[in-house]
Amino acid sequence: MLLTLGLSMIIGLLLGLLGGGGSILTVPMLVYLLHVDPKTAITTSFVVVGVSSLLALIPHARRHSVCWKSGVFFGLSGMMGAFAGGRLAVHFTSDLLMTLFALISLSTGLLMLRGGKSSTDASPTGIPRRVCPLRVPYLRVLFDGFFVGGLTGMVGVGGGFLIVPALTLLVGLPMQGAIGTSLLIIVMNALAGLGGYSQHATLDLPLTALVTTGALIGSGMGALLSGYIKPNWLRRGFGLMVAAVGFYVLSQAFTAQLLLDAEAWFDRAHSEIWATLVLLTVLILLRIGSWIHKADAVVLKPQSGSNGH
Fold this sequence. Notes:
75% helix, 0% strand, 12 helices, mainly alpha
């Protein structure tokens, strides 16, 4: 019990500090340390991370580091994607879901480590940049939100470990704005993902209450500390944490049984037709995403007033 509470506080601390990473640790903790069924762990993570994010959002909102318009549109689109992802997950085995979880974690962590200098730095004129864009790039926000929401709904996370990179690298928000805004989006995605999973997974109420209590304590502390740490340090710490967790989960989930499960799954899905459809869908989405990101630019100019748009 004390171990569970202590680990839950660490999860909450990272969630409040980095704007994500809570469920990327909650799911492995429940599965590999407490031996909870993966789908039950995923359902539990939605509750824990959703409630913790709501508490951690308050200090960020007081510092005007939440981009409400971008967050609401990204979150609404992400909710639809998360619900669809949660429903789609019923067709995959637990090991396949955990492997997908690990691969997404690894690629996201490496992408954050390779990211350039944070846009929260001063502009060339020496004037601090705005935290939120002057004009919300609605098309790219909606597209990115649905795509990220679908992935997070499948692997059972509130989405901060994907939302923060998406907001910084795709939508164009600086790190501080991405962290605050991601907390708002995580709450929305967690609600939608829980709705999708509720039809085919159970919830351990005593365990959920214990983990949520620890996460709430940690998230409040993390949200307060985040205002005193450099954005570039947050980015690097976030990338390292996500990549390390992804590597660990992959080492645990990638087994001979997983290969047999994957082969059986493809056989049932008529692999040739299925693979062709998946490939075409991915190529079409990539093309549409590329066009949207070129057409709908982000405008971040030196601040002259309030940041909270």
